[in-house]
Design brief:
The complex is a heterodimer of chains A (114) and B (112). Chain A has no helices and 10 strands. By secondary structure, chain A is an all-beta fold. Chain A is globular, with a radius of gyration of 13 Å. Chain B is built from no helices and 11 strands. In chain B, the strands form 2 sheets. In chain B, strands 2, 4, 5, 9, 10 and 11 form a 6-stranded mixed sheet that branches. Classes of the chains: A mainly beta (114), B mainly beta (112).
Chain lengths: 114, 112
Amino acid sequence: GAGVSQSPSNKVTEKGKDVELRCDPISGHTALYWYRQSLGQGLEFLIYFQGNSAPDKSGLPSDRFSAERTGGSVSTLTIQRTQQEDSAVYLCASSPADGVYEQYFGPGTRLTVT
Amino acid sequence: GQQVMQIPQYQHVQEGEDFTTYCNSSTTLSNIQWYKQRPGGHPVFLIQLVKSGEVKKQKRLTFQFGEAKKNSSLHITATQTTDVGTYFCAGRRYNQGGKLIFGQGTELSVKP
C-alpha cells in the first residue's frame, strides 16, 4: 500500500513568512510524529499525535511552531514568521499505534528560509 | 538537551572490515529501535529491542541491548558497499508513550 507522503517536497521561503507542511500518514495508522533534521544531524523530535489524545508538544522549539491533525489522519505543521535557523528537512512518520511499534517515515520536506 | 548519545559520529572502513556503533542513554529505556538512512533518503526501521540483555541478528547485523537497558550497539560483520548510510538508535522512555529520542547517528562510509 501507499507509504507516508509529504508535501511539498521542497519549499523556499523568505524570512518572516509563514509556511505549512503537510503529512499524509499510512491509512489506519493512529500515531503520527514530526521531526526536524538539520544537515548532517540527527532527528529532533517536535510533536506527536496518538488517536484522540492530546498531542505531545514537548519538542516544539518555540511558539512559532504548531501542528494539527484533522480527523485522525492528515497533519499540518505550521511555522510562523520563519527564521533562517528553521531551514532543515522536516520529516513525518506514522505507526500503527502508540508504544512499541516501528515508525514509517515519509520522504520529508526540505525547507529553506532565505 | 540530548539524552541519547551515539558514537562514533563518522566511521570509514574498507570493504570487508567490521563496524560497530554505540548508543548510550542517560535514563533507562523501555525499548530501543535502530534505523538506517541512506544518503538522500529517509530513515528506515531495522529492528527493535525490548528485553534486558537482548541480542538479535539480521544476516551480518547484530544488535544488542544492555543489561541495564541504557545502552545498545549495532555491529556489522564484513561490511559491504550497500551498508553505506547513517545508522540511528532511537530510545523510548517509560511513561512517554510513543515518543522516540534519536541519537545523533553514525555515518558509515565503505571503501571498495
